[in-house]
Amino acid sequence: MDLLSSLTSSSSCPHLYRWAGYRGNASLSPVILRHYNHTGRLQNRTPAASDSPGASAAVLLSLSVFIVAENALVLAAVVSRVLRSRRWVYVCLANITLSDLLTGAAYLVNVCMSGGRTFRLSPALWLFREGLLFVTLAASVFSLLLIAVERYLTIMKSARSSYYRIYGLVALCWALALVLGFLPLLGWNCVCSLDRCSTLLPLYSKTYILFALLVFFLILLAIGVLYGAIYCHVHKSARLGLQRGRRRSTALLKTVVVIVGVFMLCWGPLFSLLLVDFFCTSRRCSALFRADFFIALAVLNSAVNPVIYALGSGEMRRTMARLLCRKEALSSKETSSTSENKARNPKARRKCRLSSTTSCLSVSSG
Prior knowledge:
Blueprint: H1 2-7, H2 30-39, H3 55-85, H4 88-112, H5 123-155, H6 163-181, H7 206-239, H8 243-279, H9 292-312, H10 314-335, H11 339-344, H12 346-365
């Protein structure tokens, strides 16, 4: 932590940070205050205000908790599918679901450390707070690229998927995401250069934001090119009468197109705002001071993805239904006072199993 703090310390530019604090309050960070004041983010805000969350913060906290709980359920279902079928696509879906779950957790941490607490953070802690969201976003995008590459190799090159390769690529996804997300924490920031600072993220360098946007754009472009090639191959195979492969590939193509489309719909406005931030001078663009809605819309993508997985796959619906029914059965077994009598009676035991199975099937088919 001392090394990370030294990378973002104001000791290399002491002439910019001579404040002892905000109005004598030494607990407030002069570095954070200086940057927020320079970019105009300090206007109409009281750094020493109470840390009690408002109505909007409560809504965002609820959204974060919902995203974590939702993705935890889907992750459990996907992992159970991995253990049963051992298909590589479920490993990739588990990776995306994990990144969405961590996005909800990172946003929860971000909301809890925002407001009046922002000005009590050290520069390193502030950069760590923002870097968490960038890491989870990068992991989601890299996971989408991983699925596209594996599907392309399987269909176009007839290459057999290896679990060693899949897990190696998953590890590579997270390694690249960690590096990309924490580059500002490692030194690519504007702590000592106020003129290069972003308005949306006052300690982030504008050049880093442009670099991250360029990386995400190139990855999404590569995903589009790969699935475009797969789509052309599917049409060519349809002419040869390979109907089964055509149906499976088209179904997967539709699912991924929906996922990528929803991703762009949720993240596109924030990406556009970050692009405006790069070209706009500090205090000149009023739209940059109302970015909370765009950030919440981007995080909402992590709540939409599990719905796409659950509704787009019958296997996933049935697996989730079994998990829910299993939990209900365990809870009813603990609370029911007549379970011991049913356990002694074989006929009653078979009847209980039959009714439980029927209820589970009705849930999964609905």
